[in-house]
């Protein structure tokens, strides 16, 4: 039986093309950006309700959508006849309205005879992790199609044998993976043991933005593609630091450095340089080497010398940073920072604003040891089929459709993420947007482990590092002493956790 929203959509289809024509100009100018789920500096340190946002059921719809009626443009112009696919598939999603807005209308328009039912995640029971609850949902509700919101959760599900290998479908239908962003396919294969268990229509990344006007004013050369963190911070040091705070120009400032301790920057640099907190088996902490020592010095000496804006106290309301605080944190927009590192959303927003200065863009930082590698890359929502799905063939047709060129064109118009489909790149009209596509390789990051640490370990992990770094900042110990203490305390914490 079709859901109520499907019946409503079928009555609405004749009006879709008319509304598309009426809104074309609005779509071309109303670019509001995509969500970036990379704000948390340690995405694997989640629990409870936070995990519910971070893993498989988190939504990927944009907060602001130029289609005020939530109506997508039609695909009839791109497909001569709608598919005759019929039957019923069950998909997992937290909210019917969100599913309808994101892809439901497009799917129903393309497959009018296909009925879709929604299963929702159960509320975790007492002493039950969200992942345990999710696995129980997969077993009890047995959906045919799921969306996975992180590469880490995708990897976990592949390793647990809970996803269907899609290679046979890809080969059978001669799906041209060469049309899809190589970084996306590589990330999926790397976490899929060489095979593909899902496909992602969009991706997330960051790039280095810079204020051309400030660089020209101080006669400092522009940043270039594939710079290391050392090179970026050397550029930042060329801006004067002696001015009073109200007149101060910071060479580099990342927005969320304003609400975090130096650990936030330490982790960004370590991630780019290919470092790990621990070994693959989660039995040995690995933060005592010379590479980590270099990262600690690079970040902490920057704070101690006044190179970076010191973190401010940010007051939260309902666990959200208030808009006036966000504005104060965004030194780049206010012309007080020469460089920043941020997402596609941020860049597009800045490209459409009258900032009073020219914005340049280059690739994100990379490691000289592993050039052309983007550690800030992540796939967006990954569409996958559970291993025990009752109707995998129909689910595959839906996956193939939402990852098609036709849908990529529509979602690009709707600004629903940075597409992985390379055929529509010409539709992205922003100067320098190719910086998000230039780096071809991705690598397992600081947070990506074959074996995840246990909850008791992750609960205290942050606190230990924050405590030791705070002692450095207050002059109570040296960087070397802090590094040795971090290694010792974290290893003790891990041993205790693994023994339980």
TrEMBL record:
SUPFAM superfamilies reported in the protein's UniProt record: Periplasmic binding protein-like II (SSF53850)
The keyword Disulfide bond is annotated on this UniProt entry: no
Keyword list, A-Z: Membrane, Transmembrane, Transmembrane helix
UniProt cross-references to Gene3D superfamilies, sorted A to Z: Periplasmic binding protein-like II
Membrane-crossing segments per the record: 44-62
Coiled coil (UniProt feature): none
Family annotation (Pfam families): SBP_bac_1
PANTHER family: ARABINOSE-BINDING PROTEIN-RELATED, DIACETYLCHITOBIOSE BINDING PROTEIN DASA
Protein name: Extracellular solute-binding protein
């Amino acid at each position: 039986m079709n859901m109520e929203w499907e019946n409503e959509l079928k009555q609405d289809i004749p009006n879709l093309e008319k509304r598309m024509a009426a809104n074309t100009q609005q779509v071309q100018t109303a670019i509001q950006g995509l969500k970036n789920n990379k704000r948390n500096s340690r995405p694997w340190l989640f629990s409870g309700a936070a995990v519910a946002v971070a893993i498989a059921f988190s939504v990927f719809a944009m907060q602001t959508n130029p289609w005020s009626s939530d109506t997508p443009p039609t695909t009839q112009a791109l497909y001569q006849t709608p598919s005759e696919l019929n039957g019923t598939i069950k998909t997992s999603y937290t909210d019917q309205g969100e599913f309808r807005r994101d892809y439901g209308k497009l799917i129903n328009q393309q497959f009018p005879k296909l009925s879709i039912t929604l299963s929702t995640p159960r509320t975790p029971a007492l002493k039950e992790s969200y992942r345990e609850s999710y696995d129980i949902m997969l077993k009890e509700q047995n959906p045919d199609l799921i969306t996975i919101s992180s590469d880490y959760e995708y990897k976990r599900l592949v390793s647990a044998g809970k996803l269907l290998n899609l290679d046979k479908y890809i080969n059978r239908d001669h799906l041209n993976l060469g049309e899809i962003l190589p970084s996306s396919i590589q990330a999926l294969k790397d976490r899929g043991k060489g095979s593909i268990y899902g496909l992602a229509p969009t991706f997330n990344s960051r790039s280095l933005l810079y204020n051309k006007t400030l660089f020209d004013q101080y006669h400092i050369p522009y940043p270039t593609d594939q710079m290391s963190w050392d090179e970026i911070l050397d550029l930042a040091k060329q801006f004067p630091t002696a001015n009073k705070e109200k007149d101060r120009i910071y060479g580099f400032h990342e927005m969320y450095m304003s609400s975090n301790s130096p650990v936030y920057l330490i982790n960004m640099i370590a991630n780019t340089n290919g470092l790990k907190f621990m070994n693959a088996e989660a039995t040995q902490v690995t933060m005592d080497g010379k590479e980590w020592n270099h990262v600690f010095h690079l970040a902490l000496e920057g704070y101690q010398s006044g190179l970076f804006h010191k973190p401010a106290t940010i007051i939260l309301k309902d666990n959200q940073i208030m808009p006036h605080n966000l504005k104060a944190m965004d030194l780049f927009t206010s012309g007080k920072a020469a460089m920043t590192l941020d997402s596609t959303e941020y860049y597009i927003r800045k490209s459409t604003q009258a900032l009073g200065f020219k914005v340049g863009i280059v690739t994100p930082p990379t490691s000289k040891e592993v050039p052309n590698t983007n550690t800030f890359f992540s796939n967006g929502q990954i569409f996958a089929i559970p291993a025990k799905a009752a109707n995998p063939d129909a689910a595959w047709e839906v996956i193939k459709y939402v990852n098609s060129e036709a849908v990529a064109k529509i979602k690009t118009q709707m600004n629903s993420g940075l597409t992985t489909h390379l055929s529509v790149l010409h539709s992205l009209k922003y100067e320098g947007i190719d910086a998000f596509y230039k780096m071809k390789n991705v690598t397992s990051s600081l947070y990506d482990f074959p074996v995840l640490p246990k909850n008791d370990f992750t609960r205290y992990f942050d606190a230990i590092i924050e405590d030791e770094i705070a002692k450095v900042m207050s002059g109570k110990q040296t960087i070397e002493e802090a590094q040795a203490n971090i290694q010792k305390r974290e290893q003790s914490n891990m041993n205790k956790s693994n023994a339980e």
